[in-house]
Structures are given as C-alpha cells and as structure tokens.
Amino acid sequence: MRTASSLFTAAVAAVAASLGVAIPANAAVTPGDYVAIGDSYASGVGAYPYNSDSGACKQSPNSYPRSWARNHPAFTLKDMTCSGATIADVENTQLGALGTATRLVTITVGGNDVGFTDSVTTCLTGSDDACGNAAYASAWRAQLVVPPKLRALYAQVKDRAPNARVVVLGYPRLVDPGTGSCGAITPSATKRQWLNYAADQTSDGIRSAAGDAGVTFVDVRPAFADHQACGTAPWINGVDLSHYSEIFHPNHDGHAGVYTYLLTIQTDLV
Length: 270
Hints:
The protein is of the alpha/beta class and 270 residues long. It has a single domain, classed as 3-Layer(aba) Sandwich (Rossmann fold). 45% of the residues lie in helices and 9% in strands. The protein has nine helices and five strands. Strands 2-1-3-4-5 form a five-stranded parallel sheet, with helices on both faces. Helix 7 links the parallel strand 4 and strand 5.
C-alpha cells in the first residue's frame, strides 16, 4: 500500500507536470556537504514544530533542507538557515559553512529585503490603496534593488563552494484569488491581487539574478497553484494571529511535498 506521503508527492508531481514545471535530466549530485542558506522559507517557518536548539531561527525538521537531507543520508547537512534573514545576514553569518567539500547549496532569500513582512501587515490591516502602495514598493525593490545584491551573493557562494551545484528556490504566490476565508483576517480580492503581484515580482527578480549568475532557479509557483493560503486545500498557512510569523508561509505539505520534490528532481538522476 502506498503511504500518504508517497501519494502526496505523486500528486505534486502530477500537478507540476500538468502546469509545465520542467523536470531536468540532471546527473545526481555527488555526496558530500549540503549547505542550506536563507530565510524563514528555507528554515521551515510554518511547518511546525521547530528544533529547540535553533532558537529564533525557527528551523523545522519538516523544512525542505531537512526533508531532502533525510532522504539523502550520504550527505552531511549544514543548516545555516534563519528566520528573518536578509541577503546581508546570509553574507555575514551563513556563508562560513561553504567550502571545497560542499556539493550542494540551496538558497531561498530576498523576501525580507523587499519588505515581505511590511507588505503582509499593511495588506491585512490597511486599506486596499495602502496595500497597493506597499506591494508596489516591494515590487520596485524586487526588480531594481535586490537583483544586484543577489548576483553578488551567488558569486560569493560559487567562489566559496566551487564544487557545488547551487540551487535557488523562489517564493510562491501567497493567496488564493477566490473568496475563501483566510482565518482571523481575510483580505479583499484587491488585496489578494496586490499580494500575489508582489510575490510574482519578487520571484521574477530572483530568477533574473540567478540567470545572470549562472545558478539554477526553481520556480515553485506553478506547483503551488490552487494550493495557496485561503483556498480549499492550502499548502500555505492562513492568518492565525497567535502565530503571526507563520502567516503566508508554507505548511508541512508545502515544504515536504512541493519544495522537497522540486529540489529532488534538480539533484537526483531522473
């Protein structure tokens, strides 16, 4: 009998295929060190519980780096991810784990640099116009300010880990465009459009920087389609005011299924 986990992964694979997510014929990564760097989307915020020794970084055993590492025991995971990390934080505190023994590096960062938290807060508590202004400001940073910083970061990663495959995983669209409840606060249709616009601009800016730097970009948006927050089968957390930092972050299914699955097809022989 197939397990629930395998059925879920198969479902994600079917969704990815139907939406045109490319499955490249990459050679498998040679075992060695796997260094995971990035922010809350990489550390697993939203995919409860968190490892007690990770403190404010909120590293979850269900995060995509740890899920992938469990399935690849020949690799030694160095999980440097931390909730709230900016590009500068990654440069200053996370790159020290890289070296010639590193064979795989995954990166998800940039959301805090474009003002993710401020945009979400404004769109949940302010007017439609205020939400639009916040989203537009976030998009401006995503297109003009963040890409040069990311190109510099990716160059540092490649310099420090010359033998590694570098995989950059982006961000999903956050909110289902329908009218379903989000929990404690349900944004209007206009706000949902602005939130998803900002998320799209962020991922597109990251994709551009990754292409310029010659590293692999994985677009997670197609696989999350119809499974955003506030929908009928969400893989992204809705609005729980007692868990504010988890709002609009992937849940267990989003991490263990979508992110881990898409990373796996980038690193395994398929």
